[in-house]
Amino acid sequence: MRQMRHRLAFYGLCVGLTAAAALCAAAAAADQVTSKGTVLHGKITAVSSSTVSFEPEYGKGSIAIKWEDIEDLKTDGNFQLLYGDGEETDTPLQGYSNKTLYTGSSPDGATQIDIATIHSGVAIGPDGPGLRDKLRSTFRYWDGEFDFAFNAQQATIDTTGLAVDFKTTRKKDSTRLIFGAIYRYATQKDPRQTPSESITQDSAYGLIRGEYDIIPRLYGFASGEGMYDAVQRLSIRAIPKAGLGYLFWEQVLDEDHRNFLAGEVSGAWIYEHYFTRPFCDVPPQVGCIPPTPDNEYFAVGFSAVTGYHLPYGAHFDGRVDYLPAVDDFIGNYLLRSQAGLTLPLIDPIAAKFSVLDEYDSTVAEGTDNNSLWITIGLSLLW
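Below the sequence we write its predicted structure tokens.
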């Protein structure tokens, strides 16, 4: 029995020493940030040209430390750093001083990088960049979202619907290039009516837009929009426009995130061409809808744009556009309001709720002036 107790005590001592050694090794392997004379241990998760994101060894969550408050740093593992004009390193960070970051396999011969040239940096695994890291490198100047929503009902009346929304932005220095596209399609089947199936939504929208920062808070832009809506009998609506925007309020959160409110003024030309279904030359005829003449006019554009980051990673964005004809502000105009709320689920998937309301004062015969779309679905973010 005494021998058994001695053995158990010996085994316990071995386990304790092993655990202590593991803890010491983990502590030694932790990333380090020296700030205001204090050496902090933990994990460096990301860097930008302005801050370092750091998760302390004790506690929960990440903190953003400005470069001016950092005296030195070092990572134990590899770090994907995108900087300069398409340049990249995938080695540990080896030190920092005088606005210069050192990265390499060892301190000797480390690459020197001016922090002002850093686009982004994230911690990566020991095997080097994975697929997502390679995509991040290839599309370093791009971010965006892809939204998908589907609905179905089977009852007395069967309905199905699909909505797809794509938007991406390329940001580099003072320029931004934006592409967007939306497609919606829905049907309704009612066996009590003839014909039993009808299309309730069939629309497509496309956008290309460029922006350039002229001076702080003031930017110029030019854009082109196109829209098709079979239910509204809209064959094509084309809106080229150009103008100026001004940031009335801005709160910079980090390198890539901000809260803001901006206003825009532009000049635009609007062209609308309509379908006639069924076609008739001399109304009235049975089931005949008289043709609607094309609507085209020069317009002045007034817009309000906002974006705001909410708790738990949620984000709200909104936009209102008012485009009245230069010669008829009240009788001929287009008013469009849209808002979206994004709620993160599992990176990079989020839930997306969006509302788009459009009022056109001049529409095809037999259609309503107002169109409202409400969408709830999933969003893929990058």
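The chain has a mean pLDDT of 87.
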